[in-house]
Amino acid sequence: MKLNEIRDNKGAHYRAKRVGRGIGSGKGKTSARGGKGQTARTGVALNGFEGGQTPLHRRMPKRGFSHAAFRSAFVVVNLGRLQRALDDGRLKPDVKVDGAALVEAGVLRRVKDGVRLLAKGELKAPLTIEVTGASKAAIAAVEKLGGKVVVKGASPAAA
């Protein structure tokens, strides 16, 4: 194959529509651009214009404010997940469990803004857990077994 033998696939290019070639062509005179004015000229693209219909950006309500961009992203760990890690031997019951230990054990992928401990599942061994936030039920479940939950570096709302 030579460079001068390279061709496009059949049908890959469609012949450009010829406009402004007489009334009989169906695309003559104004070339389907309507009457005069701004949009009859070249180089016009009115962004968001919907042909006189109220544009989407004006139909949508514009009120309120969201703090979602500033919200802290906590990673959730359930008691059942900790028990599974203990059963698999990835966590040791006598070692303090914190975010770094959970990542190292493969329970979490990353810590983000902190770890929240929730009470789903059942824990069977006493643990010392250091987290950013914990539910009251999770704290009660850990302390019932003789463990301890240390909530550190969290605002009262996050705990």
Which range does the strand content fall in? 5-15%
Q: Fraction of residues in helices? A: 10-25%
Secondary structure class reads: alpha/beta
Give the total of beta strands: 5
What is the mean pLDDT?
91
Q: Please state the CA-atom Rg, rounded to the nearest Å.
A: 33 Å
Order of helices and strands: HEHHEEEHE
Description:
The protein has 159 residues and is α/β, with parallel strands linked by helices. Helix content is 18%, strand content 11%. It contains four helices and five strands, in the order αβααβββαβ. A three-stranded parallel β-sheet has the order 1-2-4. A two-stranded parallel ribbon has the order 3-5. The longest helix has 9 residues, at 79-87. The termini are far apart. The mean pLDDT is 91.
Question: What distinguishing features does this structure have?
Answer:
elongated; 159 residues; 5 strands; 18% helix; 4 helices; alpha/beta; two-stranded parallel sheet; single chain
